[in-house]
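User: Some background: our group keeps a shared notebook of sequences we're curious about, and every so often someone picks one and asks for a predicted structure to add to the entry. Today it's my turn. The entry only has the sequence so far, pasted here. Could you supply the structure so I can complete it?
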Amino acid sequence: MTDVFDDRICTLGEGPFWHPTRGQLFWFDITGNRLLTRHADGPQEWHLGENVSAAGWVDHDRLIVASETALWRFDIVMGASTRLCDLEADNPATRSNDGRADPQGGFWISTMGKTEEQGAGAIWRYHRGELRKLFPGLTIPNALCFDPGGRFAHFADTTTGRVMQVSLDPHGWPDAEPRVFLDLVAEGLNPDGAVMDADGVLWLAEWGASRVSAYDPEGRRLRSVAFDAPHTSCPAFGGADMATLYCTTALKGMNEAACAAHPRAGMTFMAPGIARGLPEPQVIL
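Assistant: Of course. Here's the predicted structure to add to the notebook entry:
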């Protein structure tokens, strides 16, 4: 059964992740420039001054946060940011998009054109102080996630309808050409954010389909979990037992009639007892 986890409306909800030492979900409203969370005392949010989209945990009180111009070290307690490095800061047409920590302690982040310009985006990896561009020429790069052993990374360019898989070396860098893992073109599905569970099953938000679908390591669909919003954007596992599936959603692309028909669109949802996730890896700065 799915339910609303947080009823604050995000124009473009993204980047949910469960902080394993704080026992707390964090997520973003990209175009609202907000980092959001909910804890025992209730909801909390920070307005960060520019588009922000993804994060990983550095330690109990600090995150790495991706914005349209940089990667930042963000102090949760103080609400203060320190720039780690520029991220396409010389290109005002792009912003950060999807992101996730990898098992080797790195942080992957994608960029894209603010108006979805063809080929304006890329996927980058930050690892121990080095930021390296991995895959250029993408339009809406999404679905960044990693198998439990850190042997493979997955990513998508939503506009292609395909999810790719690429093998990684022991340090977490790609060591081969990407191959097609999922081809959703024939079904007209739009791959968005993704996360992998403890069994290596990939859980994919399918933008426009009101659901998150599970795919086994051979790319076969196992099941779908429906949410009460058309634009599911990114899933994450969390909760005390890591068995709750959270999902951000968005209003982007919805007209007044669509918003009236889906009053929960833009909220953040939860579905307990879905599958067992893994704690997000710690990012090593």
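Suggested note for the entry: The chain has one domain: 3-271. Residues 256-261 form the longest helix (6 residues).
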